Amino acid sequence: MRTAQLPWYxxxxxxxxxxxxxxxxGAGRVNETGVAALDAAGxxxxxxxxxxxAETVDWIERHARDEDTxxxxxxxxxxxxxxxxxxxERQVGQRYGRWYVSANSxxxxxxxxxxxxLLGALATTGWVYDDGRVDVDGAARRVSECYPYTTLxxxxxxxxxxxxxxxxxxxxxxxxxxxxxxxxxxDDLIVRLGGLRDADPPLVLDSHPTTAxxxxxxxxxxxxxxKHREDLIDAVLCAWTAALWHRxxxxxxxxxxxxxxxxxxxxxxxxxPARAEQGRPVRGRG
Length: 286
Description:
Blueprint: E1 15-20, E2 32-39, E3 44-51, H1 52-63, E4 69-73, H2 87-96, H3 114-123, E5 128-129, E6 141-145, H4 148-154, H5 178-194, H6 209-216, H7 223-248, E7 253-256, E8 270-273
Parallel strand pairs: 1-4, 4-6, 5-6
Antiparallel strand pairs: 1-2, 2-3, 7-8
Helix pairs in contact: 1-3, 5-7
């Protein structure tokens, strides 16, 4: 049974990594991946951007410790369904749809599965995939899948009570000036992240020059510059989600995807912060 304080876990020595893994665009160009590292005190140890799986793996290896490192990735890591949508993705919409959160469909026919490649590369250097359903006792480096939108509406500290913030892509029915509105929403999100300084777990956004810059100037409206900022924000959210899960486990998060009774062995899951009304946290063995 997973508990909030694991017996082998020295909280003061933990490192949390977050990766907002990029997809290649339609022309085959590799977009930027946001990366961030936190310690247990919420200090931002590193933050920035990479390009491609190989460069991202190199960054991860440089910032991981030999023990107690938890990596959360915003990208499908395990894809075992030939078609359709993974169960964990369906459950995002079922449990967070009221907050206007849903997930894209992923299957084995999906092109450019960078997350699957990332997990494969990490496995060769000793990382263990943690689907969140059972403890991985003794695993020094653990990697799991997350989804920042569920963090935004599932973590009460951020204050999104009714719906997710519209800080992402162009709305389907974009009103004139939507880029300005999106930038303002992003600025508000940055203020809320800055308010996590005294949270449990904490996040000290101004403890690193790169993340401190987020609050020093308004969010840009130009597409490329804005996406640059958005990728970093999502990486920070991934790292903080890793800390939240490691600190509180199923008391604050739920595991989306099959239970152990439904699927033995490693399963495709998303570990998502959750309020009580967003679904029962998965405890023990399903």
